[in-house]
Amino acid sequence: MIISASRRTDIPAFYSQWFFNRIKEGYVLVPNPYHPKMISKISLSPAVVDCFVFWTKNPAPMLNQLEKLQDYNYYFQFTLNPYGEKLENHLPSIDKRMDTFKKLADKIGRERVIWRYDPILTNEEYNVSFHQEAFARIADGLKDHTAKCMLGFIDHYQHIRNSVRSFNIHPLTQEEIEEMAVSFKKTIDVYPDIQLDTCTVKVDLRHLGIPSGLCIDKDLIEKIIGYPILAQKDKNQRNICSCIESIDIGTYESCLNGCIYCYAIKGNYNTAVYNRRKHDKNSPLLIGHLSEDDIVKEREMKSLRDNGSVVILGGWINIC
Fold first, then answer.
1. 167-220 pLDDT, tens per residue?
2. What is the distance between the alpha carbons of residues 206 and 198, in angstroms, rounded to a whole number?
3. Is the pLDDT assigned to residue 82 strictly greater than 80?
4. pTM for this one?
5. Is residue 309 over pLDDT 80?
6. CA 130 vs CA 122, 151, 179: distances in Å
7. 12-38 exposure pattern, b = at least 16 Cβ within 10 A, e = fewer
């Protein structure tokens, strides 16, 4: 199985000690986002975890503890946006985060640190020219430290519209998208070791030479773990998402990065702060503790390893 840690919150930035405690204990409890009293017990045994996918804007707290993952395979989706304190008001500076990115890539390899330029949004200040210049500057800084960049364009979810509207952020026009995309592609073409993809098929840029990629990527995972897996498209994600199946161990409304466009805190940073106060690094739950009326069910877990394939000259063939 693939463990996503996490689309719902920034575990490396704020909950890394809890995560490593769960690795030590060998399991984690995860509430159903829609029925929080229904809780799944998920094994974190190396025998069933094929790969961890970490989602973060600041993995600095994990850098000196990566040896605790020696029995696991993993990679990072590392978001580097250029907006600064106005839109991302609890993040370290872009220069500090770029330095962290480089240190992480030096430790684990550039192929295992994906640069996310996401979400792309515009207003009077963060216009097309701003993005063209910022993307080029970050790309130049990371050229020796990543093998892939994922582009993501802002989704105007209902629950964030008030937040983004207050900064005069409106849906992108096709003209804006294509003008930026052409510039991004021109920039990346200077660095042939970096692949440029879009996140989801919602914005189709294939006619500009930018394919639609996968964040939880079967090919990348197989390359990292060294064996083929049997994995389907994740039915719990939107139709526009092509990622393969994974289990998310995060909890919504618990991220403290303070990004005004964040779908995972529903536009309510105060709730995230309140939930963070309930966090106990020794609890099997990310937020709070079990209650008497919680219903815990152990989820059946198994590796996705395809035992019907063998490696031949760097590829896979099936055997009966």
1. 999 999 999 999 999 999 999 999 999 999 998 878 999 999 999 999 999 999
2. 9
3. yes
4. 0.94
5. no
6. 9, 16, 12
7. bbbbbebbbbbbeeeebbbbeeeeeee
The whole-number pLDDT of residue 316 equals 55
Which residues 6+ apart lie within 8 Å of 241 measured at CB? 200, 215, 234
The encoded tokens of residue 292 equal: 């008497």
CB-side exposure of 176: number of CA atoms within 13 Å?
A: 17
Residue linked to tokens 């390899």: 109
Whether the pLDDT of residue 315 is over 60: the answer is no
CA–CA distances in Å: residue 178 to residues 11, 128, 172, 208 = 33, 10, 10, 8
Sign of CA dihedral 191, 192, 195, 197: positive
Q: Which structure tokens are listed for 226?
A: 């060294």
Return the HEC string of 201-266.
CCCCCHHHCCCEECCCCHHHHHHHHCCCECCCECCCCCCCCCCECCEECCCCCCCCCCECCCCCCC
